[in-house]
Every structure is written in structure tokens, then in C-alpha cells.
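Slide 14.
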Amino acid sequence: MSTLYGAINWIATRPSEAVNLRKEDCYLPADGWGSAVLAKTSPRVGSRWTDDGKTYGERGLKHRARNSTRTVPIPPIYVQRLRAHIEEFGLGLDGRLFQSATDGLVSTKEYSDVWKEARELVLTPQQVDTPLAETAGKLRATCVSGWIVSGVDPAEVAYRAGHSVAVLFHFYAKVLNGRREQANELIKKFLSTEYGLESGPRLAHEG
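Slide 15: predicted structure.
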């Protein structure tokens, strides 16, 4: 289960995208960065709302056209964890990387219950009573925030997370605004390199 949480934490999948990830969707080289093509989600909807009686329905990516995908780079450390996971546990019957004890789709209840138990083991009783790491989905916010803080372009962050830039700014405005000093330093460096000036280029009419 920890490797499933890793998909949320390392490549910002939604939980419903993580449980539906297949080996054929991934490029997992022996060294270096890999990639994952995210194409479907499996939100839990209740058996009476699906055509085949399953308790989940396969859909396209959230906020995207039904057949759209997004390709997300996988950091080397998580590439190795996925390779080790496959070697130890194999694949589900349909090629999924993560499977339940009955070889089926990992349900929302399963990964939520395990997360709750782990949270109670590692946090203090006082922390458990707070919203800190309240759900496995919080790992996604941690990942996206980390990308922003590390200086990744917001448009690239939005793409990797499957957001529009507008949605990214709405939900992560505090993190983005907190990078103003870093932004100033980057602009200062650019101006110094391009124009040899710290205050920026002089306009023509300034002589």
C-alpha cells in the first residue's frame, strides 16, 4: 500500500488515478527518470450506478475530455520503488500495479482504512485530532506544493497535476505568493545577465 501512496506523493496522482495505474502506462528505466501516462480514474460510485454492477466506474481524467491523457515524469527514486514493487508483488490480472487482497481494484475504503491506521501510529494523539495529513489525498497537495516551492513553472505544475493554471492559483495561492522574494532574485539574475544591469534595461527615451 505504501507504493500506492507513493504515486500520490511523488507524481501527484489523484487516489482514483493511482489505483487505476497499469504497468503498460509506465516507462520505468533501470536508471534515471521514468514517466506515467494517466488516462483513467476509478471513482467509487456505487454498484447500482455502473453498467456492470461494480462499485466503481472508469472515467476519463477529471476536467478533461473523455479520451485525454497527461504524461507525468516519475522521479528516479519512485521509479526504483515501482520496479521493486512489481518484482515483489507482481501485477493484478488486468495489469494494474496495485491490487486488493482479492486481486481486484483497491477500493477507497481499503486505502483510506490503512491510511487511518498508519496516521494513528506515527502522529501524536493531539495531531490525530487535527486536519494534519487527514486523508491520503493530502499527499497530492504536498507534492504539488513541493513542485511550486522548488521553483517549477506554474504552468508545468498545473499540467503535471491535471489542473488548469487558474485552478492551481486558486488552491495554492498562499504557496505561490510566498515565493515573491525568490521570483525577485530570478528576475534580478535575468536582468543582470541580459542587460548587465540590476535595475533593468533603460528605455530609449532615457538616453
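Speaker note: The CA atoms of residues 13 and 151 lie 20 Å apart.
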